[in-house]
Amino acid sequence: MNDRIIREVYNVLEERRDSPIDSYTSKLMQDDEKLAEDKILEKIGEEAAEVIIASKNNQQLVPEAADLIFHTLLLLVYKGVDLDELYHELEMRRR
């Protein structure tokens, strides 16, 4: 297993942003009564809280962490942030 799955998920999210289909992620990135960014930020807040609860309860930490990472990737795609910028930032923190 490597970080290839992160790139694959990111690429799928870009496709859903640029060519919306009837999917959960396409709907999150489209404005309706609530701004798309607000919807995504609410999901990140919800998922962050679930990671905290999962950690404190010692259960379901991995799937909750995956949900948080997924929605963070969704925000990056929505905001047009290139995935390489994230990798670069992480590499700089490794030093």
Structure description:
This protein is mainly α. Helices cover 77% and strands 0% of the residues. It contains five helices and no strands.
Mean pLDDT reading = 94
- N-C termini distance: 24 Å
- Give the DSSP E fraction (strand runs of 2 or more residues): under 5%
Largest sheet: none
Q: What fraction, in percent, of the residue positions are helical?
A: over 70%
Question: How large, in whole angstroms, is the Cα Rg?
Answer: 14 Å
Oligomer: single chain
Question: How would the global form be characterised?
Answer: globular
Which structural class fits the helix and strand makeup? Answer: mainly alpha
Number of helices: 5
Keywords:
95 residues, mainly alpha, 0% strand
Annotate the secondary structure layout:
Elements: H1 4-18, H2 24-28, H3 36-57, H4 61-79, H5 83-94
Helix pairs in contact: 1-4, 3-4
